Amino acid sequence: VSERGAAVHRRAKHGDEITVLVTQMCVLVHILATATVIDVAIIGGGPCGLATALALSKATCLHNAKVAVYETDSFAPKGASIQISKAGWSAITAVDREAASRIRATGSPVTRVSFRSLDGKSLTPKPLTLLVLLVSLAFRMLRLFGVRRGITRTHTWHDVRSTLAERLRERWGADVIQSGRTLTAVDAQSADAVELRFSGREEETVTARVVLACDGTRSAVRRLLPGEPGDDLLVNEERSVWRGIAPAFSTRGEATFYKDGAGRSGLVFPAGVGQGSSWSLIAPAAEGRAADPDEARRRMEAALPHGIQLDATLRKAIDGSPTVLEHKLVVRDFDNHPWTCSVPRVAYLGDAAHPLRPTGEGTALAFEDALTVGMLAAQADSLDAFCVPATL
Ligand SMILES: Cc1cc2nc3c(=O)[nH]c(=O)nc-3n(C[C@H](O)[C@H](O)[C@H](O)COP(=O)(O)OP(=O)(O)OC[C@H]3O[C@@H](n4cnc5c(N)ncnc54)[C@H](O)[C@@H]3O)c2cc1C
């Protein structure tokens, strides 16, 4: 468009008015053909973005609104497994009971817990051993009667996300999720709307009245908007984390926590119904970053203590994982930087707003944010009332 604009300018100088008119019409047609105008753009189709869209689908004032979730990937399986805390279940149940019950059905119950050193020595305190045994026996008995209960449930991140996506499409149609769309530019100069540019199958420009940034820890919205803190919002925890899923290795309901005296910790637990086991390993930060999953695996092996035989459960889980993911642990700088965005029509939610240590509460906070935005929409009398910047 800017190239065409420059051409218009050059031709205008030479007085070729007909060419100017035709070129201007071309520009207009081009803009109309490529720009999509919507009310609410949700950036990121992770648990937060999808639950937020689901929450908005319940608000009367948004029934005729144009809402879309833009997700960079294709929703193919990725990530590892998570457990959703009690607060998370309350929030997602309040957002949509049906989605909560379908997510619950994807969870593997954890019926036993143990603590070990990385080389497999038991660290479970003696009094706890008996209690753990009794609790696990109780869960086994319940299972005989068809009741699948546990201390908690674990789900693959992919199952959580695809269940939410399925439910959202049921409520708002297939087009509500635009996959394969990567946010590449944000222009917030207009007072009435924010212009977003996406790459993907084709370049697309979207004009939105409200933008909800649910695009994770390294939020593209936060990095692309001038004046925002970008990744300065993040505090480096000086830890690397590796994760994976071993589809053919089952821990039979057991979750094992590992630690050593050199700042390493680990976890192996059921991945989700029929999905084998999931594991994570945290160690002092490894320099640089892995270029691909094979390099991630090599870097993780190098970060393990030398000269010991790794606990058999952890070893089987690692070796049974086709892919190893590597991240650096970062958290939000909770003391500096405002919670609101400097652009009034934009709000950060989920990990984009408050990345945490992996304490098992990240998804809960994402669902609570979704519920809160849904409540704001439910309180608004009209679409216009919801789309005013003051709401955010
Ligand atoms: C090691 C580890 C263990 C964890 N364990 C747990 C646990 O047990 N329980 C728990 O509750 N939480 C856990 N978490 C945290 C949890 O995964 C997150 O809090 C949760 O996924 C946040 O959801 P979200 O939707 O805000 O962000 P994300 O899940 O990060 O989703 C963001 C989405 O935005 C998309 N996106 C990114 N950039 C763009 C772009 N430019 N354009 C379009 N789309 C984009 C991404 O593809 C992604 O789908 C853990 C995290 C880690 C690192």
UniProtKB/TrEMBL annotation:
FAD-binding domain location: 159-375
Membrane-spanning ranges = 20-44
Q: InterPro entries of this UniProt entry?
A: FAD-bd (IPR002938), FAD-dep_Monooxygenase_BioMet (IPR050493), FAD/NAD-bd_sf (IPR036188)
Q: Does the keyword Heme apply?
A: no
Gene3D superfamilies attached to this UniProt entry: 3.30.9.30, FAD/NAD(P)-binding domain
Q: Does the keyword Oxidoreductase apply?
A: yes
Q: Pfam families in the record, alphabetically?
A: FAD_binding_3
- What are the alphabetically sorted keywords of the record? Membrane, Monooxygenase, Oxidoreductase, Transmembrane, Transmembrane helix
MF annotations from Gene Ontology: FAD binding; monooxygenase activity
List, alphabetically, the PANTHER family matched: MONOOXYGENASE (PTHR13789), PUTATIVE (AFU_ORTHOLOGUE AFUA_6G14510)-RELATED (PTHR13789:SF309)
* Protein name, entry field: FAD-binding domain-containing protein
